[in-house]
Each structure stands twice: as C-alpha cells, then as structure tokens.
Amino acid sequence: MPDFCAAYGCSNEQLFTSLATFLIFLRFPKDSSLKREWELAVKREGFVATERSLLCSEHFKADDFDRTGQIVRLRHGVKPSVFNFPSHLQKVCVLFG
Ligand SMILES: [Zn+2]
C-alpha cells in the first residue's frame, strides 16, 4: 500500500515520488514537541501522527530545506506551513504564513 501525504486536501502519495522532480516525503519528527507542532499545522481534527505518517515537501517553503549538501535535508526545527485549507480554515492559516 502506498504512503499518502497526511496533509489536508493533498493527494500526493509516495508511489509517485520517483516521477516528481522535487517531491520529498518526510516522516514526522521524533521529537515529541516538534511532532505535536507538525500535527497541529496539518489541522486535521484529532490527527495523531504515527511512525508511518508522512508529509510531502509541498507543505514546506523552499527556505525550509538545506540544499547545500548532496542530500536535501529539512532544516532543524522547521514546521510545515504551506497547505491548501478549505475556506473555513483559511483564517487560522494566516497564523502560519
Ligand atoms: Zn502533501
């Protein structure tokens, strides 16, 4: 079974990663407080990330990634901030912009 992005309204799945030019799937952080911040950023009611929960790179800003090395890494302590929320959630989204 393919792994799907946990973000609201995002249908990206890991199956297609190899086809996408820049789509990385990120596991939720092991650090519990940062993990909680990611869970809240996803804004899915009652959402609790598991070890298999993923977010695709579309939910992060370009600046959130460290591309200086051969492997593109997410900078330390970064939270996902780019989401396509339905209109009733958009106001809250401003807080993350
Ligand atoms: Zn996604």
Describe the structure.
It comes from Myripristis murdjan (pinecone soldierfish). This is THAP-type domain-containing protein. One of its GO terms (molecular function) is zinc ion binding. Keywords: DNA-binding, Metal-binding, Zinc, Zinc-finger. Residues 1-83 form the THAP-type domain. Mean pLDDT is 81; it is low at 92-97. Strands 1-2 form a two-stranded antiparallel sheet. Strands 3-4 form a two-stranded antiparallel sheet. The longest helix has 11 residues, at 32-42. The protein is globular, with a radius of gyration of 13 Å. 13% of the residues are buried. It is 19% helix and 10% strand. By secondary structure, the chain is α+β, with helices and mostly antiparallel strands. It is built from 2 helices and 4 strands, in the order E-H-E-E-E-H. It has one domain (14-96). The protein binds zinc ion. The site of zinc ion has 8 residues, from strand 2.
Task: Give a short overview.
With 97 residues, the chain is an alpha+beta fold. The chain has one domain. The protein is 19% helix and 10% strand.
